[in-house]
Amino acid sequence: MNNNDTIIHVDNLSVEFNKTKVVQEVSFEIPRGAIFGFIGPSGSGKTTTVRMLTGFYQPTTGEMTVLGHSPTQFTAKTRQKIGYMPQQFALYPELTVWENLQFAASIYGMPFKRDVRLNELLEFVELSEDRNKLGRNLSGGMKRRLSLAATLVHRPELIFLDEPTAGIDPVLRRKFWDHFKTLQDDGCTLFVTTQYVGEAAYCDYVGVMIQGRLLMVETPQGLRQQAYGGEVVDMHIKQRLLHKDLIALSDLPFVQAEATELPDDRLGVRLVVNDASHAIPTLLKWCEHEYITVESIEEYHPPFDDVFVELVKKHTPPKDVSHG
Amino acid sequence: MANIPSSVIRVSAFLRKEIFEIMRQPMLLLTLVLGPFLILLFFGIGYRNEPLTLRTVFVVDKDSPIAKNVEEQASSLGAQLQFEGITDDLDQARQRLQNNEIDLITIVPNDPYQNLLMSQQSVFSLYHQEIDPFRTQYVDVFGRVYIDEINRRVLRRITTAGQTDLVDVQKKLDAAHSSIESLRDLYELCLRKLDDGENSDCNREVVQNHIQDIDEDLDTLELTVTEKARLVDAINEGVMDEPLSELDLDSSTSETETEANLETTLVDLVQKTNELSDLNETTTQYDEQLILLKDLEVDLNRLETKIIRFIDIDARVLITPFRAETTSLAAVIPSPADFFAPAVIVLLLQHLTVTFAALSMVRERQLGTMELFYVAPLSAFETLLGKYLSYLLFGGVLAIILLILVVFGMGVPMLGSWLSVGLTLLTLVFTSLGVGFVISLISKTDTQAVQYSMIVLLTSVFFAGFILSLEVLWEPVRLISKFLPATYGIILMRGIMLQGSALMLDQLTQLFIFGLILFILSWWMLRRSMAYV
C-alpha cells in the first residue's frame, strides 16, 4: 500500500492498564477511503484500540500514525478531520435533537451559518421530523442516528464508529451500513467496531480481535478462506455417498480438506477447494464418471458467525488436558 | 459571522447548552428564585426579636417569713418571667422541669433578714436543663438581671421609708422655726423697749421658756435627723460623689456653707442654741442674740431645704441615678431579616453556583460527553471558559431577580450603589464557580460532588460570618473563613446594602484573587484529565 494512501498505520501496538495487557502487539494499516471493520467479542480490546487511535489512551509500546500524525500529538487541525461516535449515547437528554446537533457543530468550531448542513444531516439520518424532540424522549435507534449525525456534522475525513449498530434492530442496522457506504462514496474512511460478525460483509477490510490480539486483517472473502482453508462448495446428490467416494473426493488435487457430508442429514457433500469456479466443472465431470447423480452444485458462503467460530477455533491453542 | 474565531464558537457551545439545559427545568428555576425569597420572607415575618420567656416555679420554705411576698414580687418582676406557681417541694419542681412543663426553678432563700444581720448575702438558686449554650447564657443573664431588680426593690423600699420619716422631721423643723420666731419677736420687743429707754425687763421667764422650747425642738430634731442625715449624706457622697448642697444654685450661699453636709449643719444648730442661754440686758447683747437667731434660722432653712430636696427625689432615681441610652449612628437600623438578607443572597448564590459547577464536569463524565471533548478540537480552557461564562450569566440573572425581590419586595435597605453590589456578586459567583469546578474535578460521582458542596455550605454557615461574627472565632480557626467566598461576599454586601459603604476594594481584590487561583487550578486539573491517559 502506498504511504500516501494509508490513513491509519499501526505497528506493534500494546497497552497495559494496571499491569494487565488489554491490547497486545497489534499491527495493521488502513487505506484511505476504506471501510475497516474491527470485529471481536465484548472486551476484546476494540474500544481501547479506537481510544488509542483517537488520542485518548497512550500506548504502552508500539507506534501509530493517524492522518500522518501521532494521536498523542494531534493538533486542533488534525482533530477537525476526525469524527468520533462513542459506544454510548453521548449527548444531552435535556436538549432537543436540533440543539444537540448545534452543540456538536459548535465544539468543532463550525460557523454559525450551518443550518443547511444540519438539515442535510437530519435528512440523512431521517430525524428531520423529530428535530424538536428532547434527547431523553428518543428511542434507542433515534439516539444512535442522532449520534451519527453529530459525528458527521463537521464533514470529517476519518470517522471512528464504536459499535454504532449495537442494540438496534436489523432493519436499522442495514440502514446504518447503507449510510456508511454513502459516506465511503463521499470519500470518507470509516473505522467501525462491531460485535456483529455478519457485518464484516459490508467492510472492505476486517480486523478480528480476540482477547486483545489482532488475529488477522483480511477482506471478507479472505476471512472465509482463512477460516476454512479455501472456498466452500456444496454438492447435493440423490444417494448417500459411500465412504470410498468421500475418500476419493478428498484426494482430488484441488480439494483442500477432507470432504464431509452436508449437515442436517441432507444428502450431499461439502468440499473446501482452492477455487470454486474452476473446481465445480471438474467435480461434475468426476461425478458423471463415478455414476453419481448430482442434483445441484454451488459455492457456499458460510455466514460470518461460522467463519468467526472457525477462526477462533483455529487460533485458540488446544487446552492442555494432561494434568497429572 | 464567518469571521468569528473557532475558539469563540466552541466557547459559545457551552454557553448555549448550559442555558438551554437550565431553561428546560422551569421548576428548578422557580425553586432557585422563589425558594430563597420565601425563606427570607418567612424569616422576616416569623422572627421575633424578643427575649425568651421562662416559665418559672419558685420553691419557698413554708415557714419562710417572705413566703407570702414571693408571688406578688415574682409576678411583677418582668415579662420574661412567667410565674408558674410556688411550691415547697423541690423534687416535684424538678419533675416538672424534666417533663418540660417549666423552664426554671428558683429556690428562694429562707431568711434573708437573718443573713443580712450575719453580714451574709442570701442566695437565689436557679435550676434549668438547657443544653443550647446560648439559652444557658440567657438563663445566667436572666438570673443576674432579676436579682438586680430584687436588690433594687429592697433598696427602694428602704429609701422610701427614709423619705417618709423625714416628712415627720419637717414638722419638728416647723416647731423649731416657730420657737425661734417667737424668741426673735420677744428680743426685738425688748430691744425696742430698751432703745425707747423703757424698762428693759424683758420677761426673762418667757425668754427662758422660748429658749427651752428651741432647745427641746432641736434636741428632738437632732435625735430624729442625725441617722437620716447620715443616710442622705452617704447617698449624696457615695452615689453622686458630691454633697447634695453642691446642686444648690443659690449663688448667695457661701462656699463654706455649700460644703457643709446635713450632719454638720445640725451640730452647728445645737451649738448656736446653747449660746442663746447667755442673755444680758445690754443693746449689744440683744443685737448679738438677734444675729445668732438669724444664723439659727438660716441653718434651719438650709437643713429644711436639703431635707425637702431629698424627700422630693424619686426613690427609684435615688437608688439608680444612672441609666444608659444608646443611639445608633448607622444610617438605618435594620431588622433581623434585613440584617440577614444580604448574607442569605450571598450564601445561596455561592451554594447554587458551587453545586451547579460541581455537578457539571461529573455529569459530562457520566453522560460520556467528555469522551467527545477529548477527540474534538476543544481545549480545556475553552471548555472551562464556556462553562464559567454560562454559569456567570445564570448566577448574574439569579442575583438580579433575588435582589429585586429582596429590595423592592421585602424593603431591605439598599444604601450603597447597585454597581458595587453587582461587582461584588459577579466576583462572588466567579470565585464560587472555582470552588465548584475543583470539587467537580476531584469527584468521581455526582453523590460525591453534592456531598462536597454541602460541606462547603455547612462550613460557610459557621465560618463565613453568616450566624456568628468572625471575631468570636479563635484566630487560627478563623483562617478557614479566608477560603470561603461567602466570607468576603457577606462583609461586602452588608457594608454596601446596610451601611452604604463604598466598595471595599481590599475585600473584593482578595475575593477576585482567590477566584483567579481557583480558575487556574481548575484549568490545570481539567487539562490533565483531558490529556491522554
How would you sum up this structure, described in words?
The complex is a heterodimer of chains A (about 325) and B (about 525). Chain A is of the alpha/beta class and about 325 residues long. Chain A has two domains: about 5-225, Rossmann fold (3-Layer(aba) Sandwich), CATH 3.40.50.300; about 230-310, Alpha-Beta Plaits (2-Layer Sandwich). Chain A is built from ten helices and 13 strands. A six-stranded mixed β-sheet of chain A has the order 5-6-7-3-8-9, with helices on both faces. Chain A has a four-stranded antiparallel β-sheet with strand order 11-12-10-13. Chain A has a three-stranded antiparallel β-sheet with strand order 2-1-4, with helices on one face. In chain A, a hairpin with a 2-residue loop joins strand 8 and strand 9 (about 215-220). In chain A, helix 4 (about 115-125) packs across helix 5 and helix 7 (about 220-230) packs across helix 10 (about 305-315). The radius of gyration of chain A is 24 Å and the shape is elongated. In chain A, about 40% of the residues are buried. With about 525 residues, chain B is mainly alpha-helical. In chain B, strands 2-1-3-4 form a four-stranded mixed β-sheet, sandwiched between helices. In chain B, helix 2 packs antiparallel against helix 12 and helix 12 (about 335-365) runs parallel beside helix 15. Chain B is elongated, with a radius of gyration of 41 Å. Mean pLDDT of chain B is about 85; it is low at about 240-260. The interface of A and B includes residues 57, 91, 104, 108 and 112 of A.
